[in-house]
Amino acid sequence: MPQGSRSVQRLLFPQPGDEAAHELYVRAESDAVSWDRFSLTVAPGATASLATYFGAFPAGYWNAHTDIERITVVGEFDGAAIVRVCAADEEDGRRVLATVPADGAFSWDIRIGDGAWFWLEVEAGSEGTTFRDGAWLAPDAKTATATVCITTHNRGIDCVGVLERLAADGLVREQLVRVIVVDQGDRPVREVPGFDRAAAALEGRLKLIEQRNLGGSGGFSRGMVESLQERADHALLLDDDVLLEPDSVLRMLAFAARTTRETIVGAHMLSLLERTVLHSVGERVDRRGFWWTSVEPALAPVDLAVATIESTPGLRRLHHVDFNGWWMCLVPLGLVRRVGASLPLFIKWDDAEFGLRAAAAGAPTVTLPGAALWHMPWTGKDDGLDWQAYFQLRNRLVVALVHSASARGGGVLSASFAQDVNHLLCMQYGSAAARRVALRDVLDGPAHLPRTIQRRTTDMRVLMARAGQSVVPEAQLPAERGGPVPAAPAGRVEAVRRLLRVAVHQFRRSRAANVSLVDAALPRAEGKWWVLGLLDSATVASATGTGAFVARRDRRVASRLLWDAVGLRARLWVRWPRLARTYRAAVAELASPAAWHDLFDGPVDGRGGRTP
């Protein structure tokens, strides 16, 4: 390693169990390469490319957010090879910067501004070659350290798996001051087989805290607040139900150590179901309707085995984000001292709100390519149809009240009303009722946030059960009457016509209920307003594929919920300016460590904020 430099990105290959994701590490004919974690063997005459998600170096991000001017790629070759040092930028998908014969030690220096991405292509000689111990090096900097903050709720096996991956990599372990697990479930993670072994492998770094369920915001805030007592620079927020690429930790810390200003560094989310699929290249908040969305909608999601750096301009662009999901996010602890932890939102929007608050305080968020983990995709969840529907709307409105620069939140009231109407047309009366509670709570002012943080989940579960909006096992589902099911409307004109038909249908009497029959049994993708709005009953498959929701039209219930949605929004529209001032004034206190300690130490239903 050249003097005065340090690795900021190791060149590595799939771990055992990650073979399905090999195209994120190396591209070559399947019989042309083999690998272990830190070496790649290329067959005689074959070529392997590291123009991959984990193999290429995201120079554009380093150029934009750090002060380094040059980057060096190094490695060892056992066997003659031709190495092409390649680059790409937004306009040009591939340029060869240098073609270098290699056998033995290899090193090449590149000016950081010469491309958005750099990578190597290795063409083996007649005897084949093995490339090992590759890395991208940058000028030395102070080593950044972190506490890892994991929030878990009855996912003990998954959580232990994350601990094992953190412990297994010695370099990762060295940069972790503490690993804090905040257990908010009723099946203790400490009782899971393998927990003690994982704790021992972390060599005294593990700190387990058991507390009442305060949601993701409460769990991650506990981690951040506890981290303030540690000798670390950052808190790494990490989900419990993920498959971690451990080198992502080192890449994020290396980047954070060299940014020109205090920066939140986020990781990407890949799909656990389709291992080469990326959820999004970055997240932003649409200020008009105040809803989160991708900075590059065409790449949300995107299969990186098909869309490569060379072929996809959107992957070569520098993306500016508003926030990063807390599936994996590195937060400077100096920032936590300045702006506090999360708002007590329980779940949904806590990460987005924190990113917006941090940016207002001068700390942007960067979602760093090449740093990622695998997580269940959102398509595998029904969070708009269960108790979480309350938090989706309540927290969206709270964040808009705090951060929107538009009069009365821009379009958030009309956009969220359209979602209420959609729920009603789809006979999802439980969701609409939960959202009614959300509107009432927002009107109550910011004091309701800590007051309701523990009980609203239970309240919403009860509400959904009373509304009959829960997943019914397949064996208990009513039979389908049969008959044609309307297809999706083609084009805007047909959509307007369909909406008129749907509106007319809402005024008709529902056919007499027969609990053993429904008009149609629909897959989840077809459970939309343009179909359900013309039916009196249906089953709609759940996101998990295990059972379905049973929906039956009720004009009286729908009418009452519709008028409540209108009336409550009218009140919110009138009171918006005053409420916005009230919520904004309350943020500093609500997010403060002192306020969170009051919640951690409050009445606990038999579970305390104790450290075993």
From TrEMBL:
Q: Give residue ranges for domain Galactofuranosyltransferase GlfT2 N-terminal.
A: 8-139
What's a single GO MF annotation on this record? glycosyltransferase activity
InterPro entries documented for this protein: GlfT2_C (IPR045699), GlfT2_N (IPR040492), Nucleotide-diphossugar_trans (IPR029044)
Q: Lineage of this protein's species?
A: Bacteria, Bacillati, Actinomycetota, Actinomycetes, Micrococcales
The answer, when asked if Zinc is one of the entry's keywords, is no
| Similarity-based family | Belongs to the glycosyltransferase 2 family.
This protein is called what? Glycosyltransferase
Domain (Galactofuranosyltransferase-2 C-terminal) ranges: 415-601
